[in-house]
Write a structure and sequence with these properties.
single chain, 5-stranded mixed beta sheet, 13 strands, about 35% helix, 6-stranded mixed beta sheet, about 25% strand, about 270 residues, alpha/beta
C-alpha cells in the first residue's frame, strides 16, 4: 500500500472512530435550562445559578466528571424539552417526571417537589372553585411544559382558551397587562420572577393549585446507563443524613430556599 493510501486509510479510521464514539458520554453532555428560580436563576453578568445548577455541579464532580455552569445553554423551556428528547448527548437541569414522559427520557432524581398553581390579578373577579371554572377565562400558557401538559390532561377542552407564550416572564407580563385572565405556572418561581418584572406579588393571588410535580434531571434516552447510575447513586448518598441529623442535600437546598412557602389560596386538584 502506498504512503498516500496509508494516510487516507488512517484518516478514514480516525473519522470512523470519532463518529462511533458515544455522543452521550459525560464529557459531551450539553445541559439546558431556562429561568425557574430558585432552581435556575438567569443572570446578565454570568452563567446560570440556582439549586439545580449547584446540585448538578456537586453530583458531576463527585463522580469525577466535568461540569461548569458557564457551559450550560439557556433556552426556552418548550424548545429545551424538545431538544433533549431528540438530540443525543443533551440533558435538562429541571424536568417534571410526568407519566407520558417517563419512557422518553432517562432520569436522575427526584430533586424536589414543585407546586403548580393558577395565578390571577387581585380584584379581577376571577374565581376558580373547581377546575372546570377555567373554561370561563383566557389562560396564558407555555407549550410543552409541565403546567401545560398537566392542564391539558386534566381538562382537554380548555385548550381553546389558551394563549401560547414563550416563557414565564411573558406569562407574567400578559397577566399584569390584563391580556390574559390567568396563567398556570410553578408557584414559587412565578412569585420570584414577579420582582424581575416589576410586579408586586401582593397584587396577584393563586386561586387554584394542582398536586405538586416531582422534578428531576432529565437526560436524552441515548445517555450512557453507567453515567445515570453513578449520578443517581451520588444523589442518594447526598441525601443521606449525617451526624448532625441533616444532609448535604438539605444544607444546599436551604441556601437557595431561604423564604417561607407562599400562602396559597384555592382548592387542590385531586
Amino acid at each position: 500500500m502506498s504512503k498516500a493510501n496509508c494516510l487516507l486509510a488512517l484518516c478514514l479510521w480516525t473519522i470512523a472512530l470519532l463518529c462511533s464514539a458515544d455522543p452521550a458520554r459525560a464529557d459531551h453532555v450539553r445541559f439546558y435550562v431556562d429561568a425557574l428560580p430558585p432552581y435556575a436563576e438567569l443572570r446578565d453578568d454570568g452563567p446560570p445559578t440556582g439549586f439545580a445548577v449547584a446540585l448538578m455541579g456537586r453530583l458531576m464532580h463527585s463522580v469525577h466528571e466535568h461540569f461548569d455552569p458557564s457551559d450550560v445553554t439557556v433556552m426556552t423551556w418548550a424548545r429545551a424539552v424538545h431538544e433533549v428528547e431528540v438530540m443525543p448527548g443533551t440533558a435538562l437541569l429541571v424536568l417534571a417526571r410526568l407519566p407520558e414522559r417517563i419512557d422518553r427520557f432517562k432520569w436522575v432524581g427526584p430533586l424536589d417537589s414543585l407546586p403548580i398553581g393558577v395565578f390571577a390579578r387581585k380584584g379581577a373577579g376571577v374565581e376558580v372553585n373547581r377546575l372546570e371554572d377555567l373554561k370561563k377565562y383566557s389562560i396564558g400558557m407555555v407549550r410543552n411544559t409541565a403546567p401545560y401538559r398537566v392542564l391539558i390532561k386534566s381538562l382537554p377542552s380548555v385548550r381553546q382558551n389558551m394563549v401560547m407564550l414563550s416563557g414565564i416572564p411573558a406569562q407574567l407580563r400578559m397577566l399584569r397587562e390584563g391580556r390574559v385572565d390567568v396563567i398556570v405556572q410553578a408557584i414559587g418561581a412565578s412569585i420570584r420572577l414577579m420582582g424581575d418584572e416589576g410586579m408586586p406579588a401582593e397584587n396577584f393571588r393563586v386561586v387554584y393549585r394542582f398536586e405538586p410535580l416531582q422534578i428531576y434531571f432529565g437526560f436524552n434516552k441515548s445517555t450512557d446507563d453507567g453515567l445515570i447510575r453513578r449520578l443517581q447513586s451520588a444523589l442518594d448518598r447526598f441525601k443521606e443524613p449525617d451526624s448532625s441529623g441533616s444532609s448535604p442535600y438539605i444544607r444546599l437546598r436551604e441556601a437557595y430556599f431561604d423564604e417561607p412557602a407562599p400562602v396559597v389560596e384555592g382548592n387542590r386538584d385531586k
